[in-house]
Amino acid sequence: MRNGSNEIKGKLYGVGIGPGDPKLLTLRAKEILNEVKTIFVPKASEGGKSCARSIVEALALGDKNFIELTFPMTKDKNKLQSYWLNAAKIIVEELKKNKAAAFVTIGDPFIYSTYIYLLETLRSNFPYLETETIPGISAFGAAAASIGLPLLKGDEKMAILPVVKNLKGLKEALKEFDTVVLMKIGSKLESIIRLLKKMKLLASSVLISHAGQANERIVRDLASLEDKNLGYLSVIIVRNISRRGHFPNPNRRGHFPSALSRSPLKESVPYPKVGAE
Length: 277
Hints:
The chain is of the alpha/beta class. The protein folds into two domains: 11-137, Cobalt-precorrin-4 Transmethylase, domain 1 (3-Layer(aba) Sandwich), CATH 3.40.1010.10; 140-244, Methyltransferase, Cobalt-precorrin-4 Transmethylase, Domain 2 (2-Layer Sandwich), CATH 3.30.950. Helices cover 28% and strands 19% of the residues. It is built from eight helices and ten strands. The strands form two sheets. It has a five-stranded parallel beta sheet with strand order 3-2-4-1-5, with helices on both faces. Helix 3 packs across helix 4. The protein is elongated and about 60 Å long.
């Protein structure tokens, strides 16, 4: 299906809303969400809740028309394409009313986001549709800030990888790059921990779950991790100390202890608690 008409008068904004803390939205993102009346929010199942919606609702933007769009967590491309196309049609019908609308996504819209596939579907089937993408703070960027860990210095190299079932390419990346960010961990957490242990990288690895959200959890000792279901909405940051030496060990709130003072650094104000899945 390809709609070549230019009858779509409205504009769609793809808005990255960051990792979970409403204060981490960009000024542009909040400006757009204040302006639009309709906000599309993704969720993983028909009866499930939308984490993205709970983040936006915490902003207290006033009366908004939330439309939830389902994108199931499946590898079946044909099934996914039907959901992407259905969502695209719903969005277009709303935009035909000559109004702007926003589709929100956790993190950044162009980093492992459902928005990417939705945008491709819209461009393919509705080429006259006007869109604008608003970047957001990524989950791994927020995670690194939360633990006070620099991701890159000087000429260092970093890899961002989605973890596949057989961990393909992971061992090679851990050898080649100074910093490796592991995303889409899910049920592969135990396998990842075994590999990190084998490569003697456990001590230089940190898991951050639900970064920037009320239920954020930081795990530095992955070997002792008992909750093997912690992979959902988590990232693991690995610093290859065999390439660069010392692994920074900031305190629990992300501050590096000062070598010049024995007094502890002032702790930052914790994030406000917001509803999250």
